[in-house]
Write a structure and sequence with these properties.
Largest sheet: 6 strands, antiparallel
Structural class: alpha+beta
Radius of gyration: 20 Å
Strand content: 15-25%
Number of strands: 11
CATH topology of the largest domain: Transferase(Phosphotransferase), domain 1
Order of helices and strands: EHEEEHHEEEHHEEEEHHH
Length: 254
């Protein structure tokens, strides 16, 4: 196996430790979170906890693509995390990425970051409308999204579980995770509003986010809420159509 790795300058003195947890990933570490799509494990390092994400081996087409044409999910996560930090956007501290190939085909990859403690994710807001300080949290999240937009960050996976929220002395801090799908560019008005389309199915949440986005951006509220709800409904329709197709394919495979 050919190995490629990059370690953040703050952690280069721990290279031997990092090599060890990757080489012995299957037998060490503590399982964390949902293990269905990609494996996540926690490791201890001098009073800190490291979060290691092991990406599944891709299909043959992507093994070729990642081997020659595209950066791996692990590499993109590592590089995007550093880019976010340079733009003053919260994300868990990047530590390193590792990737392995064999006979010119891409195989395994791992992204390591510091484990970020948090109080909730956006998902909790979609289920618990009585969450303490609910309106303030949702509006702070909207301002955070606007901050991303004006800094030229399009988070393609801007969905309920991918923003960690932690209460702080000054309000709330936000940290992006699952970083491998991002674009860095200036966006037009409609493209910015469409970036909210994956977040909720609740019109009441769309109305609050639209109101706050109008306040911070100076754009017209009625236009924002109309577009945000339109894009939300379009995304939900596509999502449900995709789910129905998956069920049909599973049925025929049986």
């Amino acid at each position: 196996m050919k190995q490629t790795k990059s370690i953040h300058y703050k952690f280069t003195q721990h290279e031997t430790f990092l090599d060890d947890i990757i080489n012995n990933y299957e037998s060490k570490g503590e399982d964390f979170g949902n293990q269905k799509r990609n494996s996540l494990k926690l490791f201890k390092l001098e009073g800190k906890r490291l979060n290691v994400k092991s990406f599944k081996i891709p299909n043959m087409v992507n093994q070729i693509a990642y081997g020659f044409l595209r950066r791996s999910k692990a590499q993109r996560s590592f590089e995007y995390a550093q880019k976010l930090q340079s733009l003053d956007i919260g994300t868990p501290q990047p530590v390193a990425y590792y990737q392995f190939s064999k006979s010119f085909l891409f195989k395994k990859s791992y992204y390591i970051s510091e484990h970020q403690d948090y109080d909730l994710t956006y998902r909790e807001l979609t289920h618990d409308f009585n969450y303490p300080d609910y309106d303030a949290v949702l509006r702070a999240f909207t301002r955070f999204t606007y901050k991303m937009h004006i800094k030229g960050i399009k988070f393609l996976d801007h969905s309920p579980g991918n923003t960690l929220i932690k209460k702080s002395e000054n309000g709330y801090d936000f940290y992006l995770v699952d970083l491998n799908r991002m674009e860095f560019k200036q966006m037009g008005f409609e493209e910015r509003i469409k970036n909210f389309d994956r977040l909720t199915i609740h019109k009441s949440m769309v109305e609050i986010m639209s109101d706050e986005y109008a306040k911070v951006s100076g754009e017209d509220y009625e236009t924002i809420v109309r577009l945000m709800w339109q894009f939300t409904e379009e995304f939900q329709a596509k999502h449900h159509k995709k789910q129905r197709m998956k069920k049909r394919l599973k049925f025929w495979k049986k």
